[in-house]
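Case study B.
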Amino acid sequence: MPVSSTIEPAVRVETKRQPLPPREHLEAVFEIRDLTAVYGSKPALKGVTMEVYKHLVTAVIGPSGCGKSTFIRCLNRMNDLVPHFRQSGTIRYHGQDISGREVDPVAVRRTIGMVFQRPNPFPKSIYENVAWGLRVLGMKDNLSERVERALTRAALWDEVKDRLKASALSLSGGQQQRLCIARALAVEPDVVLMDEPASALDPIATQAIEQLLHELKREYSFVIVTHNMQQAARVADMTAFFSISQGAEGGRWGELVEYDTTEKIFTAPADPRTEDYVTGRFG
Amino acid sequence: MELLAWLAAAVAVGILGVVVWSVAKRGASELNLDLLTKTPVQFAIGNVKQGLANAFVGSIVLVGLATAMALPFGILIAVYLVEFARASVKNGASLVLDVLNGIPSIVIAIFVFGLLVVGHGQSGLAGSFALATLMLPLVARATMEVLALVPDSLREASLALGVPRWRTTLGVVLPQTIGGIMTGTVLAVARIAGETAPLLFTSSVAGTSVLWNPTQPLQSVPLSIFQLSESPVPADHARAWAAALVLLLFILCVSLAARWLATRSRRKLGRAGR
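Model:
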């Protein structure tokens, strides 16, 4: 049963999770300070300051257009690919600033992997989907074992071990997404970013991926964007709630409203906007 | 309205039908193996067997060389513009390619004449360079179009692994576009195989023997048609029609092949985009 709550949340928070140590004892993977992101002249995100901790699952929730996707795409410099995108503020990754122009985004993405909203396997065989990146990045020793290990971690090995040469596009959506997770894990990242990884999947495939997060967070740190509050409540240790702010001249941008343990966010949020969102009054 | 549109379509098909039919009717009598294997005989007396082997071989060499020049350049241009260039550069260069595509072939012929023929003499190389100039924008534009069809999600998948941009282009993007690039190339080949004007100044004073060496002027099918049609001998006219028929059949086959390739590659891209 949930801890005695001051509000009636729309979703129940799982209580079997281990209680988190105090935040000052946690090791930060990302320290984000005053992050502001702009597409052309349209601000997407203003003044985000927060930490992402090691070996935890951090969920980013909020209504559509609140900048959640923009936010995690800043963490591995994927927004560099968007024309007219600019950002200010600093993002430190294990103490090192990765947001500057002089930092090579390829090196950043090498250790900070990403899984996307829609499964996007390469139109190659199942085996090649995992092996290609390894080969390109020079991790050629024990290639088959690495592929098997990655597929096993993504809980896909048993389903595909007899047809590794088949096209990845012959897999179901949920299997494709797990293949994309295997592909990301194979190159041994430190952090895995997930941009609504289950939004295109059915409930069973979603459950399989949530189960994975529970098992893998001992080895990796995860940041997961979701607009599904139940999902955040089920998988996340920490939850950041983003919302849309409106300026005087009608400008709209996303901002971080509240960031705390998942339990706190869903049972005793400090900000009334968070409360409105998690109780389902807004969203 | 619908009737008018139907009529317009019928007229287009009808014109093609009349062209094919009249060429076939006049050329069929001379369409035989000799046409492809024998060379022309000057001042032929009596019923000497002759053909246009020199023109067919010349055309193969000219078009082959032109493709070898235009294809790598065209693909590189397209890859640069779609995968690497800023939007303003891309738009500017696309416009330049479209203008290049619209330049009359005779103008390109004069340009290549001034560049390569004056002082050096005509050669198959000059002729194929002129053809390659015509082919380049066709290949580049076709490649740009197929590159634009490759979903960004595939590029992101590769880049998110920490794979550099150029490896992403080579390993993920280009393999998706091979079918489309081949379609564009094949259509460009069909287009330049029938070009006469670029060869007029660059590779037209050719002999009657079969030549594979592109440093010498090479005969070509379209020029043969032109020259034979000027001849006073009626048998030459018949051979001009036959050569025209061969050219037409070649373009028909190539267009069908291009269509087949296009459907195949579109199906492949469609699967990847899902």
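Chain A touches chain B through 27 residues (CB under 8 Å). The remaining cases will be described in the next quarterly update.
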